[in-house]
Amino acid sequence: xxxxxxLSATGNKLPIKIGNVSATEVNATxxxxxxxxxxxxxxxxxxxxxxxxxWPGVHELKHRGKSYVxxxxxSHIAVMGEAPLAKLARxxxxxxxxDGWCIVDVYGxxxxxxxxxxxxxxxxxxxxxAGMTQRxxxxxxxxxxxxxxxxxxxxxxxxxxxxxxLHDLTTAMESVAARAQKV
Amino acid sequence: xxxxxxxxxxxxxxxxYYAGHASALERPDPAASAEIWDNYLHIRxxxxxxxxxxxxxxTGCGAWLVVTRDTVSHAVLLARLAKxxxx
Lengths: 183, 87
Ligand SMILES: [Zn+2]
Fold this sequence. Notes:
The complex is a heterodimer.
Chain A: E1 16-18, E2 21-25, E3 30-35, H1 40-51, E4 61-64, E5 67-71, E6 77-80, H2 85-88, E7 92-96, E8 101-107, H3 111-116, E9 132-138, E10 141-149, E11 152-158, H4 162-182
Antiparallel strand pairs in A: 1-2, 2-8, 3-6, 3-7, 4-5, 5-6, 8-11, 9-10, 10-11
Chain B: E1 2-5, E2 9-12, E3 17-21, H1 34-42, E4 50-56, E5 64-70, E6 76-81
The complex binds zinc ion (ZN).
């Protein structure tokens, strides 16, 4: 198959840093996986054997090196990075959506204050811990929001909305930074 | 208003899309009479009290939910996955 080269969804507008929060674009392949009827166990076995990871339950995100598996919706998980796609495709519907999503990592000590301005999720540390992933909104956009570390989140929106994400994210980062200066 | 999604937990109403009464899940037999189909498609009770609605967790997990709520008090009493109810 032809190897396609990565083209930035944000038009190379990242990385940026405002106040103590940084945003950087992630270049990763993304596949959605929906096990065929009655094949959940087999799909989980492939993920366990080939990736060394347990099948992610609701709100779970697991990774080994740069390979991630994460709960994605009521019937899908997503795999990010290297994954045993051919083996998974025998027991599940596997869809390459790498060019359909824009992936941005945001991190820094005020990152939760920034997210609080963007999503109705409860993003307090005790409710949104590292290793958790949730589907919700970023402003009006359907998003996938994952907590990779205490002060690092991975945001995903449809690629067609990358510039809107950038706008909303920058606005929130500027507001948080401006408040920090005033106090 | 918040809805307790069985998968996602307690979520803001903005994440959901309302899609009418849950009687849509009780689809008649294709050979049923015109009256039964007319009733299924068009006739709705407009009651004051406990009702079951279909809601789509649109910006959440994407699941269809049957939400039991009280049209008088606006209380949301229960939400469960619609696919469990589907015949
Ligand atoms: Zn949900």
